[in-house]
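Handoff note, outgoing to incoming analyst
You'll be picking up this chain. Sequence as last confirmed:
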Amino acid sequence: MKKYLYIALITFTLCSCEKELELESPSELTIAGFWDTEEGARTAHTGLYANLRSSGENLWLLGEMRSDIWGGRTYESASNTNLIESNFTEATAPFGGWAGLYTRIHRINDFLANAQNVGFINEADKNHMIGQTYGLRALYYYTLLKTWGEVPIILEPVGAIDPSDLSKPRSSQEEVMNLIKSDIEASLSAFGLDNSFWAGNRNFWSKAATLALKGDVHIWSGNLLGGGASDFTTAKTALEQISALEVSLAENISELWGVGGEANSEFIFALQYKQDEASNFYNSLTGRSTEINPQFDDKGASMIDFVIAGANRYGQSEKTILLLDDNDDSRKDASFIRLYIDDNAGAGYPTYDEPAYFGSVFNKFLGQVIGSERIFENDVPVYRYADVVLMLAEVKNLLGEDPTAEINEIRQRAFGANYDAAIHGYTNGSQVDNVNAILDERYKEFVGEGKRWWDLRRAGDSFVIDNVSFLNPGDEFKLLLPITTDMIGRNPALVQTPGY
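Most recent structure output, in case you need it:
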């Protein structure tokens, strides 16, 4: 009963934090005696992941929707077109209140301030939890940095500080990055030699996840914040350690997306979804049976028996369709079910045919049909090993090394028995050629997984402008989001993102 009381209490008190970093009197986050027990600490630890999962759709939108993947044909009214088109102003800024991420950070700060003082039967469990928690805080601050640049830093539990201290200014990107790197090192220190996945489950953060984040962060810092070769070398060292931590590529890309395949060795960290507990957000990339059932797939098969009750709010861009229009590449069918208005006299449409094209259904996270209902309960990876392989290619290229082996490792898996090195293999080129090859490979590999916008940003401003049709030279300020006028009104210490 105690743990449910705490969950209810903490949910209530954190509602006052949704107006992030505003001048409101916070309630105490803890209750007398709660942090005296291992049971209480474990309950709080579980709550951190419920919090993260509730931010899953926002994290996906932040990392995906402003890229070149979407903006194509839908058969229902489209959603988030302002993000797709980077069409917003100070008055229409999306994700008010920092997308709710400081609420998650407040919970983490509370855990870090209190859990370390709780006695555990097995202290190794406590250390693992602390390693997880520092990793999660680094992930949140990294997301804030990538999205808004300068953001406030708050490290104390809300109940332990004066309300006036919540009116914090935005810290510099360098200060925020230093915090992220510090939390990553604190996470690795807490994990120590413990390379295990918590309870054998990849729905919890791990040392492998921290190392993946470390590589990601140091590439960003090296390329965008002036860290250069020192950061790139650190990133490479971190990424190269991961293959020894019970992580590897799945043999076939299709193995990753079924509900029954969630325990695969490729997922490093994934958000967990379960029937009667929480559904993922990918039903918005499918549609309703009334539109889908009369259509045909690209093999000419009728969709009449396809069970679905979703929505079609996001359509793949023509650029995405053409990029994946290769029948030898298993990622084509693994990523989308292309729909056509007829069966082309039984021959289907092996290659894209725009006049007959109706739309598509995203195929990666389609859940499973139980009875007459489709349940969207796929786990959604935040990091998987293919990500690590291609980040290694990225950092090798930045160091002036040859990224060919890593690019071809991913291509060989994608093409399988169809792989012909003379046709599909990559040969080392100029640094710019290599960047574009890696970006294209990541595009095809991670379409729909919330990666593409961050990939373009990490590569550099020019790569964003060159690839996203809604952005032009001079729009570089739009790569960071504005904050709402309401946020500034409630926290006068905030200043608007430059350019807005």
